[in-house]
Fold each of these.
Amino acid sequence: MKTGKSPLPPPAFLITVDTEGDDLWSQPAEIATKNARFLPRFQALCEKHGFRPTWLVNYEMAECPEFVALGRDVLARGTGEIGMHLHGWNSPPIEPLTEDDHRHQPYLFEYPEPVMRAKIRAMTELLEARFQRKMVSHRAGRWGLNSTYARLLVEAGYRIDCSVTPHLSWRAYPGDPRGSGGPDFTAFPDRPYSLDLERLDRPGDSPLLEVPLSVIPSPYSRLNAWLEGGPSLARRAFGRFFPPRYWLVPRDRRANHRGMRAILRHALKNGWPCVELATHSSELMPGGSPFFPDDKSIERLYRRLESLFALAAKHFRGMTLEAFAAAFSGR
């Protein structure tokens, strides 16, 4: 018997790219943007499978003519989105926080609130001038979100954030040496929710939709916890092949590829409205990151992405963050 209800659309497959300079893991004092020339290949792969990446752009890439040309073309053809990604240490106005901000890479929330507001405003205005679009999507540099930051995003007109990494903590990753490290997201929701601006770990009624990175505990999470007090060499070796959690972030490991496919299965089984993959623009260039040091590693990456995207295209629909937020609000 017909119920009159329309079937639910397939969940969204969201692709987010932190679009930034080359190998920021090495903490360079001068930042190059050679990775921009390697990005059309990734855009083409996404389009081949019907996906629309959201390029989350920081200061040096907004000043890179080669990337700006790509971003404008993507927007003109409706095959992706431009959003904002902010690294506090090199985004104007420059207000030094430590003796060497390029080395320490402070989290934006470690700066005084007036400086945070000024940096968000300047970065937003720059991107809107470059791309002639209102910026609505955002990811914090180094995943460094807190309540003050979220409130300032709402003030600046942002509607979507994707800084939360459920089941993961960044406390052990310092910014300002006088600070307490990054945020702890271990107890945060793993599905999209409107943020409570006072308590980011619970749903609220703010206009800012949080779309977390897709992360799930692996079948080996308890064993990894049991090994936590054991020899570091054994712990690292076990974690490399049997990680405690899976996240939808490509790495040059077979276990990572298996884990990303497991996330797709988990999302479908549990009725998730979306999954979100994240990468960095510099990870798409040989030598642009510690994870993909050469041409061979990049070619392996693309073979695995081809396989993952082909699988995802059978069960998910491609959307930008902005399009997903509009559809999610109408659910």
Amino acid sequence: MSKHESSSAELSGSPPTASYLAPRTERRVSALSFKPFRIYFGGTVLAMNALRLGAVAQGLLMWELTGSPLSLGGVAAATAIPMMLVNIFGGVFADRFEAKFLLGGSSLIGALLFVLLGVLDFTETVKPWHIFSIAIVAGFVSGADQPSRQAYFPSLVPKSAMKSAVTINGSLMASASVIAPTVGGILMAAFGTPLGFFIASLGWFAMFLATVVLPRRGTSEATRSVISDLGTGILYIKNHRVLLVLLILTFSNMLMVFGWIGMLPAFVELFDGGKREVGFMFSSAGIGAFSGIMVAGRISPGKRLGWLILAGAASFSSIMLIVSNSPSLALAMILAAFAHFGNGLFNISSIVAVQLRVPEDIRGRVMGVFAISQSVGILGGLWTGTIATVLGLRAGMMVGPLVMLVMIALILTTQRKVRNLHEDPSRGS
């Protein structure tokens, strides 16, 4: 038995054989039945709300200082590029070093960065270059956090609770997009953006405290170079066509479609909206994403998992074309909820398909590669912002979804293994 299996069994209170060796016929249970996952859940709820609130405050502050869509995209790129660089190796480190320490360290640094930005904002000494600089450092921190998180939380539950754990973990960001932007938008409209940064810092500090009491995942023995270990994860994806296609699809979706989120301060201004309206739009998208994630977690598509994944991605892009041309903010909010429902359905269904097909001993390396998609999503703000600067905001928001729909059609017609993807790895690709 590996260290991971032994650790998971001890933490859950179950005998070792109930861990990753659970038979396929075992009844699925909720991940929240296990105390370590509940602790992780509590810390992550606060951390994800902090992350979303901080992103809203940062975008609002940059828009107030510059009034430029390109600057909004630039801040997104300043965060995303270092995230991607660290993500590349983050999965290797998550397997080599204790993941809970990586999570704790990144959470503490993230809290301090929000405090610094809040102080600069409160004292009215903040400049655009301050936001860019802090965004770069935050990108490195987030780049370490994501693969560590993806590698860590599955070790807190037995395999029978894996789908539940993936669904709950995925729902946390979406649920944070419902609560934090609305409450934060109202508070920041009344008291200013510094309050948003200070509240966000508390959320990251709570995640740090959670990691102090969480159990260790364990590490794999490092017998090769970091580059060789990284190659193991990449090679595994390359040799499994379904995983490779899902990776390409996920990256493209985040880059070309999801990047519109970074344009929200500019988008709501088309309708004479302000901080509160930005918060409402974030929350509308969050409600939709959360609903999609929860539906994906409850249904069992069986042999139609591939169709579900492609349909979710296609609905996201299709509805975003309509959002881009919405005549009113109220209609845009409703449509954004439906669009992100499809995105939530797509993301969780894809992650479940991947997590169930990845061996535990290289999980960090493989999921580290997939974690780069979150960085790509932030970088999508630069994609959308650049095109919007040239073509106008509405047209700039339409280009990505159109490209994505063409890509989905190509995958649907040429990738039989993806179309026939089964939820149970033993019964499909």
